[in-house]
Design a protein that fits this description.
It is a single chain. By secondary structure, the chain is an alpha/beta fold. It has helices spanning 29-41, 55-66, 81-88, 104-115, 137-144, 175-186, 198-207, 212-225, 230-237, 247-258, 266-277, 285-294, 301-308, 325-333, 340-351, 356-362, and strands spanning 2-5, 8-9, 12-13, 17-20, 44-48, 70-75, 122-129, 149-154, 167-169, 282-284, 313-315, 320-322. The two termini are 43 Å apart.
Length: 363
Amino acid sequence: YVVRTTGVSDGLQFAEYTATGYFVPESRNEMLARVDEAFSESNVIILSKLFGFGKKSLIRKHVQLNKYSSAVEVQGLGADLYDFFLNNLQFTNINEAVFEKKDEHAVIQTKFEFLKKLDENHFIIISDVNIEDSCDEFIVELLKELRCRLVFVTHTSGDAYRDHFPVIDVERMESKYLLELFFHYYDRDSDLDHEPLVPALEQFFDSIGGHTKTVEIAASVLSKEMRADPDELIAYLETGTNDNRALTDRIFEKLSSLITLENFQPDVLKTLILISVIADPSVEISELYNMMHLCGINDRSAITELDNHRWITYTSYNRSVFIEPIIAQICISTRLEDYSVPTVVFQQFADQYNNIASRDIIT
């Protein structure tokens, strides 16, 4: 799918929003219908589930199908709702002087005055926010005044807000759609017989709870390493897994076995480690290039290679790079042998602080 739209309304300018990806046809019809139903009840909804089950793909498909006059996606960077509206949400043409010498509530209310100018033809996706355990009534009342459509995408449950807004848990896709997703990245253009692989693949899907991000990464890796030998692929997929463990532990195990970092060229490996040790899950490409230079990484094409391997997501609409938290955890906890790159990264962070105590803590 490709989503590309931009717009201006009542003096509030949106940056261009472009998202690309593969969406399995018919795979999310029920979920898309639930989103439509939720929007008939509320202009604000919450999509919840463990990372990597396709929440953002689902809502981007909704945007594509409904032809909104403008749409924008904003990274929440793990902030809770109050902190997001106070610090993360910015507009391209609102003078920051508007917010000077005001208390926090007044700053948030000022931002909502601009948001309230938007109608139902305008769409906002707020990705990767932390829906806290207790409901913030101040934020709830402001959200209820909006006419635009707004979606929070979260890895947390969203339970604290279920009495106020629809919360949709994005569940796994059916196996037949996961098979299509797998073969899209594994062997889309060949005439090879896929049928012998199906039982082993279905067992693999069950072992990881149908986790779509792992399916994508597995297909991308195995197409390069085992495509020519179906028997080897079947043997790999049928490796037993302890189903009594938590789903996150099983996903971690599978991704750890797939992420064979030693196969990367040095600059690619360094870039992956660099992205992994950055505190935020999303970083602007210009900032990343600067950090790569400071760490002695000269090959910018490393980002494209990592995107092709599905380790990171490069988003062209806001020129940023995103890495899933569990992938970052794997990269720095199971395969990290050379500490020179993270040492340089943390030193750069420390050098941004003037306070000696802060520098010591970060170091």
